[in-house]
Design a protein that fits this description.
Number of domains: 3
Bound molecules: heme C
Structural class: mainly alpha
Distance between the termini: 61 Å
Order of helices and strands: HHHHHHHHHHHEEHH
Mean pLDDT: 89
Length: about 350
């Protein structure tokens, strides 16, 4: 094992909490490092390996008919009062399932308080929204339909509207054991099932992890070492989706207190937001809950500076002292996380 691989293995193990700084310094000092190191690389690769199945909940299992119905609902602008806005308006496949805007724009051009996050890989998310206020995709799905500032469509009216579109009841029947009745729960279950099928494909990084040595550039490989080492990004962006599904204040200067609204008594939850996954991240600018950072370079500069110092700032945040080359390497690494997925094809909406 070469020294880069050793550093990678150890950086990752530290991020996983398996090893200490002591082990790190020993590893470089001891001649026997390569034996221990080989095991570490196996652990490292396993930690970033993509899962082989999608977690569908027991009370809403996958069926093709349900996912199909969910896809149609997801892309149908008739779910909004104006007939102009669907889920895909703000979670658009062309922008890696975000919308490319600093803040979402809802009904009647109302600007929302936060940026539209991606729904990529949401099947695995342990908490939803920037502040984690929903636990499941089923719970979340009806919110934006009803919200006056988003799709502005009361659910009773929506059920009437969909029931009158001839093509819809048979789709509900096919998805729900022959029962054609349209209900709130069924709408939520179908949309959630479809969302769980929206998964980022294999990226050059995955091919590198599998052993294809030249799948990513040497700059990106150095970036990966920094990500797990000096820059400590993996303290929060861990695992194959590059998120710990947890909440941190990274010191963005705006006034939004994020998860602090639900946990006013917990100091570290003030200004804390959910760690976003980094898959296909270079297709999703601008970044952060407030869309305040326009490029990945600006994101790396933010971490390099360490963020606004305040009591709630995460203990993992401190100035990094990165060189210009190291900053470029981190960006090259993040760019290697983008998959070339097939374009999403148009769905035929029922009439
Ligand atoms: C007007 C833009 C807009 C529309 C339309 C919209 N969303 Fe969102 N969505 C957002 C914003 C903004 C957030 C984050 C809000 C927050 O965290 O406070 C969000 C968050 C989410 C999340 C959480 C993602 C995560 O990782 O935390 C999911 C899932 C989601 N929306 C699904 C949907 C579905 C399904 C629909 C259609 C029924 C929809 N959205 C319609 C803007 C929109
Ligand atoms: C203390 C935990 C933590 C550390 C360390 C950390 N991040 Fe983050 N990261 C977050 C959180 C939380 C957010 C969302 C913050 C927000 O919007 O307020 C985020 C946002 C991002 C985003 C924007 C994602 C998006 O969809 O908008 C990128 C890119 C990113 N981080 C990369 C990095 C890199 C590169 C490093 C190392 C230099 C790093 N992060 C270190 C927690 C962390």
């Amino acid at each position: 094992m070469n020294s880069l691989e050793t550093r990678l293995a150890i950086g990752l193990l530290m991020a996983l909490g398996f090893a200490s700084t002591d082990l790190l310094s020993q590893a470089f000092a001891e001649p026997g490092v390569s034996d221990r190191g080989a095991d570490h690389v196996v652990v490292l690769k396993a930690a970033y390996k993509r899962p082989t199945s999608v977690p569908f909940p027991e009370d809403n299992p996958y069926t093709e008919a349900k996912a199909k119905l969910g896809q149609i609902l997801y892309f149908d602008p008739r779910l909004s009062r104006s007939n102009m806005q669907s889920c895909a308006s703000c979670h658009n496949p062309s922008f890696a399932w975000g919308d490319g805007l600093p803040r979402g724009v809802g009904d009647n051009m109302h600007e929302l308080g936060r940026r539209s996050p991606t729904i990529l890989n949401a099947a695995w998310a342990e908490a939803l929204m920037w502040d984690g206020r929903f636990d499941t995709l089923e719970e979340q799905a009806l919110g934006p339909i009803e919200a006056a500032v988003e799709m502005n469509m009361p659910l009773d009216d929506l059920i009437k509207k969909l029931s009158q579109i001839e093509g819809y009841p048979p789709l509900f029947a096919a998805a729900f054991g022959g029962d054609a009745e349209i209900t709130e729960d069924k709408i939520a279950m179908a949309i959630a099932t479809y969302e769980r099928t929206v998964i980022s494909g294999e990226a050059p990084f995955d091919r590198w992890i599998k052993g294809e040595r030249r799948a990513i550039s040497s700059s990106a490989q150095r970036g990966f070492a920094l990500f797990n080492g000096k820059a400590r990004c993996s303290a929060c962006h861990s695992g194959w989706r590059f998120t710990d599904d947890s909440f941190h204040d990274i010191g963005l200067p705006d006034d939004d207190i994020g998860r602090g609204a639900d946990f006013p008594e917990i100091l570290k939850m003030q200004h804390a937001f959910k760690t976003p996954g980094l898959r296909n991240i270079d297709q999703r600018a601008p970044f952060m809950h407030d869309g305040s950072l326009a490029t990945l370079e600006a994101v790396v500069d933010h971490y390099d500076e360490g963020g606004k110092r305040r009591p709630s700032l995460s203990d993992e945040m401190h100035p990094l002292g990165l060189t210009d080359q190291e900053k470029r390497d981190l960006v090259a690494f993040m760019e290697s996380l983008t998959s070339d997925d097939e374009p999403v094809t148009y769905v035929q909406l029922p009439r």
